[in-house]
Amino acid sequence: MKKTINVSNQGATLDTGRRNFLKLSGIGLAMAGLTLVGCDDNDDFQFMDNKVFDLGTGDVGVLNYAYALEQLEADFYTKVVNNFYSGISSVEKEVFTDLYHHEVIHRDFFKAAISGATTNILPTLEFQYPNVNFNDRNSVLATAKALEDTGVSAYNGAGKYITNPAYLVIAGKIVSVEARHASAIRNLINPGSADFSGDDVIDANGLDLAKEPKDVVTTAGGFFKTPFTWKERGIS
Fold it and tell me: Is-above-0.85 flag for pTM?
């Protein structure tokens, strides 16, 4: 059965008085007044052996995949802003706070969207950061860079698997915000440089890299404490 839901950013706590490209004007393009037409219920993900979740098939699988990644980013930035590393500058604090708000909005949006499309939804995941020192600037920035770059390439790589045009439009809006995040983090690491369009993230055609879900999960898998599978895309 098809279901229609509406999701907005009403109640978000972003400060609209500060003017830069990470503020509500940017996130509003992705989140304000979005309408989704739900997937068929038979696209639900399933319990696998030992209660390990499979993300499912079709568009629901892609949405659950995006939801898993947004949960990771939101969790990471929550830890950053709840205990800023020593010596953090006011600019860095502002950027991390903005990114935290954005990722929480993304995470909550996907939860609402999937809940409106199916009776089954990926649960809240647990994460681990064995190689991250949250008290060290370089460690936090390097991890943020890896997560944001991976997020952009993940959306780009999964786009071709989306069949619902409404979902594809939403993914395009969110990935543009994720790319702004990646650019902001790279500028904190190397201010005033051209690293925002470095050869490690832009291909020879001047396009952002796109990575298959299997490659993304391999790269970011160490952060996920809660196991899940996506049999349709070769993730087990």
Answer: no
